[in-house]
C-alpha cells in the first residue's frame, strides 16, 4: 500500500489554474528550458512543451470521442433510454473528476510523465511496471481497434473493392507515418481535423435517422414505428458490458498524463478539461438520445451505419479522416511512453541524434506493427477489445485517481480533519470501490459476450478478406 505519510499535499481548495509558476515552467521567450521529464529543451531539438490550452482541449476530445461515441446508441438500447442517460452522466462526472486530478497531480509532482510514474509513487517498482504495462497494452489495443474502424470505413466507401486485410494494412501504414511526428504540439492540428470530422459525421447520421422512413436494419415491409424503450431489463452480463462501453467512451484519462506533460503551461489544464468534457458529453447525450429514439433496437454498431446506405457512405466519408487521426493519436501516445521510458535522463531525449531517431521510429513502428497484428489476426476482435477496455480502461481511469488524491492529502488532512476532507476521503473510497466493481463486472460481461458471439458465428478468420462494414 502506498505511504501517505510521505505525501506532498495540496490545499484541498487549490485549483491547477491558481498554482504559482514554478521552476521549470515553459514559456515562449526562453531559449533553453529545463523540464522535469524531458530535461533541457533547446532550439536544437524537438520542443516537447509546446501545446497551448486550446490544443490540449482538442487532443483530449480526439482521444475520447473517436471510438466511444459510435457505441452510445447501442448502450442505450441495452440499458433503456433513461437509465442509459443517468449512467452516462454518472460515468462522465466520475471520469471528469479523475481527469481533473491528473492535472492537479502533475502540477504537484512535475516529474510525472505517465501513469507508470504514478504507480511507482503509490506502490513502488511493482506499481510502476504494472501500470506501465497496462497503459501500453490498453492503448495498443485501442490503436488496433481504430485501424479496424478505418478498414470498415474504406469497405463502406468502396463497396468492398479489395480485401479487408489490405485495407487494415493501408490504415497501419498511414498510422505509422503520421504517428511518427515527434511532438503533440505538431499533431494538434491533425486532432482539430479529426475531432471536427467525427462530430460532423455523427451528427449527419443523427439528422439522417430523423428524416428517413426507418433505420437501415429495420424490416422493409409495413408501417415502421421505433421500438425504443425508456427502461429495459438486461441481464447482468449485458448491463455490465454496456456500462463498460460508457467507461470506454470516457477512458482517455490515462492519456491525459502525456498530454498535460507537453503543455506550455500545465496550470491551464483545467480550462482545457472543461471544454473537452462539455463537448464530448453534449455529443454523447444528443447522438445517443436521437439515434436510439429513431432506431430503437435496430440501431447499428458502429452507429454510422444506422441511417441507410447513402447516409452511411456520406457519414463514413466525413468520418474517415477522424478515424485515421484516432489511430494516429492512439499509436503516438503509447509510442511516446516507450520512447520516454527508454531515453529518459539521456541527452538523446531532446536532441536530433541518430540514437534519438532510431529509438523514436522503432517505438512508433513497434506499436503500429503490434496493433496491426492484433487487429488482423485475433478472431472475435470486437469482443476482445471490449474485454481489454473493461479490464484496463476502467482500471486506469478510476482507482489510481482516488489513490492519487489520498496520497497528496491524507497526511496533512488527518492531523486536523475537516468535513470537506472527510467527504473527499469518502468520495475517493467510492471511486476506488466502484472502479474495482466495474472492472470485475465488465470483465465478466465481456467474457460472456465473447463466448456467446463465438457460439453464434464462430468468430472470424485471421487476416480475413471478408467485408466487415455490413454493406448490402
Automatic annotation (TrEMBL):
It is a multi-pass membrane protein. GO terms for molecular function: L-amino acid transmembrane transporter activity. The keyword Aminoacyl-tRNA synthetase does not apply. The chain crosses the membrane at residues 51-72, 78-102, 130-153, 159-178, 190-211, 239-260, 272-294, 314-333, 354-374, 380-407, 427-447. The keyword RNA-binding does not apply. Its main location: membrane. It comes from the Eukaryota. Residues 51-447 form the Amino acid transporter transmembrane domain. Keywords: Membrane, Transmembrane, Transmembrane helix. It is found in: Membrane. InterPro entries: AA_transpt_TM. One of its GO terms (cellular component) is membrane. PANTHER family: AMINO ACID TRANSPORTER, AMINO ACID TRANSPORTER (EUROFUNG). Belongs to the amino acid/polyamine transporter 2 family. This is Amino acid transporter transmembrane domain-containing protein. It comes from Penicillium daleae.
